[in-house]
Amino acid sequence: MAIDQVSVFIENREGRLAEVSRLLTAKGVNIRALSLADTADFGVLRLIVNDPASCAEALKGAGFVARTTEVIALGIEDQPGGLDAVLGFFAEHNVNVEYMYAFVEKTEGKAIVVFKTRDTAATEALAREKNIPILTGDMLAKL
After folding, report:
1. Does residue 28 contact residue 57 with C-beta atoms inside 8 Å?
2. What one-character DSSP code corresponds to residue 95?
3. Residue 101, CB half-sphere, CA atoms under 13 Å: how many?
4. Which of 59, 62, 88, 108 is most deeply packed, by most CB within 10 A?
5. What is this structure's pTM?
6. Residue 12: which pLDDT band, with cuts at 50, 70 and 90?
7. Which letter, b or e, does each residue of 26-50 get, where b requires 16 or more Cβ atoms within 10 Å of its Cβ?
8. Do 32 and 101 contact (CB within 8 A), yes or no?
9. 42, β-bridge pairs
């Protein structure tokens, strides 16, 4: 149940993020979650969108460097210790979380956390073992 995340490398300059947003709006791409990390010269924009293939294609067509990566989105209890329980479980099973970001879905009382790990399939299997809800791209599009 991995989902495709689109990563975009953008120059760290005024208006460049707005260009990405404008382009995706024009293509009808709906951003469901995002993370932006920067350095002095460029940033990495990670996106969960309703149509990752169209998103990546549009970005590449406009000259951006973009790629898709498999990640897993888990529904974690939105309470103190919810994330700690999952991270502790992953650590016990030697899962290295390369990066993650989250957003809160109040209607379900869950924090949706997107994880990038080396082995998405193994991470999914562990989540199932622990009965941690795994979200699909379709489920995220409906939030």
Report:
1. no
2. -
3. 12
4. 59
5. 0.83
6. confident
7. ebebebbbbbeeeeeeebebbbbbb
8. no
9. 11
Residues 126/93, Cβ–Cβ less than 8 Å: yes
What whole-number distance in Å separates Cα of residue 16 and Cα of residue 79? 36
pLDDT above 70: residue 108: no
Number of C-beta neighbours around residue 55 at 10 A: 27
Cα gap 55→36, rounded to integer Å:
16
Domain that includes residue 107, residue range: 71-136
State whether 89 and 49 are in the same domain: no
CB 134 within 8 Å of CB 68: no
Place of tokens 């479980």: 89
Number of domains in the chain: 2
Angle between helices 16-26 and 52-61 (to 10 degrees): 120
Q: Dig out the tokens for 47 from the structure.
A: 């996106």
What pLDDT does 88 receive? 96
- In whole angstroms, give the CA distance from residue 11 to residue 42: 4
pLDDT, average across residues 70-74? 94
Check if the beta carbon of residue 3 is closer than 8 Å to that of residue 50.
no
Residue 68 confidence class, pLDDT cut points 50, 70, 90: very high
